[in-house]
Structures are given as structure tokens and as C-alpha cells.
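Collaborator request, handled under Task 6.
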Amino acid sequence: MKIPTKPRALPMPLWLQGVLELGQAAVISALLVVLPVAAVWFTGGFADRTAESAARLAGQGWLLMHGVPLVLHFPPGVAGAEAVSGLLRVVPLGLILVPLLLAWRAGRRLARASYTDQLWQALLGALVTYAAIGAGIAYVSGTPDASVPLAAGALIPPVAAGIGLITGAYREAGAWSRLVGVDFAAWVGRASQHSRWAGSYAWSVIRSGFIAVLVAAGLSATLLAVAIGLNWAGIAAIYERIDGGIAGATVVTLLQLGLLPNLALWTLSWSTGAGFALGTGSSLTPLASTVGPLPALPILGALPAGTLDYGYAALAIPVLGGLLAGWWFFREGENHFDEWLVLRSSRRWLTATASTLALAGLIGIAAGLFGAAVALLSRASLGLGRFTDLGPDPLALGLWLAVEVAVGALVGHALGPLLEREPRRR
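C-alpha cells returned to the collaborator:
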């Protein structure tokens, strides 16, 4: 007797799986905004807002979490005799990690479900879905006070989602050849020996510059944590003056956690000497601070005030980052430029000096470019008055960081032979 079997279900199309994966990520990231806004509304924190208005505010918060700017509309009398508009722009690096990590997880799942030549279907479906969700939220969350351009709502949220998808898929695939179907190792192998040496040298310089910025940013984050701890009494006093209840304090705390990486990068700019601004005409540097009235954000109670006697000691942070970068290059990189100079001159003191100076300068330039990029990413604007200029100047931070990292890289690479010397055998 033939036993009846259950018919096999049709496999889910890859584009539909991408739709479900990033749709799920959008819903989970939206809860991070909807729940605090709902808590404040239910406790009476939005006395003049209806439930629909609070929902629109949550939609604007979801878009801001992805770095989408809001166009604020100010009525006459608020910013002058006539109605004006301003651009509220900020990329909360702490909050944007949530959709990025959710997309990273989705990218891994999609890579497991796809063949190499089919992955684009899942990624395309996922990104189109996220763009449609962003455009839809931008359309329904507009108010007379704030609006979002549909193009910005559709194009900006998929940036973070796309980064997460691609890195997650690469993490699952283990190699770019499996991800895009191109064997980069074979492509590089077909290049000439001089091209491979130049490429290897340039890649090591880029990684060294990234390490310098990463170390300096980590030390700056530690410095920020120490400043918060030392000024905790002032921060608590600002919380008490806000008096927003449990729900209000929770929302303010989540907002500060979302901006904490931005503030760490501002601290990095401060430690280089370039400083940063908290409004037009203000300046905070290791030597002196000049600020005007500030919004009642508790974490701003950790800002340094007046002249700092030992503020110049913070300049050691980027130099130390450069020192470790130069040491790392000595350990991991291959100084092909030094080898090229040796083939053309027998004066070792000249070739060693020239190659070390060139290496330090290139690492400094790479670090400066990375620093300018993160400074540009961390900047913000509240869209009105003097608070349209918040954060570091990318050009100033890039120049200061390039010089200081170059000095540190010069010392670190010069000390490399001493630090890596093997102990004598007895």
C-alpha cells in the first residue's frame, strides 16, 4: 500500500524573503521610538497633542534615527517678523546602530538562503522595501511644524540598512568572491609585482590610519566617561530641573545614549586642539572654552568651563594613536617604499629617514581623512538661530589629526625595532 505524502511547499522567492527580513527590522527599530513616545503621551507629557500627533512625532523620530533631516517651520514671532524654515539635521550614531545591526542579521540570513548569483534579488527586495517604508513614514508624519522631503525619506534610511546588509552577507559568505562572484585574489594576482607591492603598501597605510583614529576615538570616549563621572552632580541637577517624570527622563536618557558616540567624536576633536562648537560664536578647546546659553540637556553638564590648566595634556591622545599605528605598521605591514629606495641608494641613513618620514606623513593623511569624515558625520544642526552650528569643523579636525598622528607614527615606527627585539638566549 502506498502511504500518502504531504506535498512539498513552494520555496519562498528571494525578493520576498528580503522584503520580510528588512520589514521586520523596520518594525523592531520603530518600537524603539514608538514605545517611549507612547509612554510620554499616556502620562500626559504631551498635553497639547492628540494620539495622531504623537504618532506623527514617533514617525519623525524614526526618520531622525536614520539620519533623515527634518524641515522645521517657525511661525512669525518665533524667529523674526516673518515665518522661516530651518533644517534639523543630526545622525545619532548610537541609535542608528539599531537598524544597522538588524540589517546585518538580515544580510547573514539572506546570504545563507541564496546562491552567489542570486543574492542580488534578496538585497534588492530588501532595500526597495526599506525605501518604500521610509517614503511612507515621511509622507504620513508631516505636520505644519515639521516635514520630511519624500526623496530624503526614501533614500537615506536604506543607506544604514544597505551597509548592514552587505557587511552581514560578507560575514556569512566569508569572502567577496562568494558574495559577488568575483575572485579578487585572482584579479590581484594578474597584476604586476610592482602594482601588488604598491597596493599592499597603500592598504597597510590606510589600515594604520584607521587604527590611529580608532585608538584616539577610544581614548577620547574614555575621557568623556571620566568627565561625566566627575560632573555627575551637575548632570543630576539638570535632570531635576527638567522634572519630566519617569517617562520624560527615560526619553531624555535614550536621546543622550543615541548621541553619546557623537559626543565621543566631539571629544576627539577637542583632544586634537581643533575643538568643537556648540552654537555660532562658541568654541571649546583644551586651552579655553567659550559657550553661550545651552539647551537643558543633562549630559552638557560635563562640559569643561573656562581655562584648563592642564588641558594641553589631551593633545597626547592623537599622538598616542599615531604611535600605535606606526608600531602596528612595523609589525604587520611591508615597507615596500623603503625597499624601493634601498635598490636605488646605498646610503641607508638617507633611505631609512626618507621612508620613515614618508610613511608617517601618509599615515597622518589617512588618519586626517578618516577624522574629517567622522567629524562631518557627527555634526548636527537644530535649524534655528545660533544652534545651526554644532560639532567639530571637519577641515580643522582633519588637519590637526593628520599632523599629530604623523608625529606619533614617526616615533612609533622608529621605536619598532626596539620594541620588537627578541630577548637574548642564555
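The cover message to the collaborator said: "The radius of gyration is 26 Å. The chain has two domains: 14-185, 192-419. Please let us know whether this matches your experimental observations."
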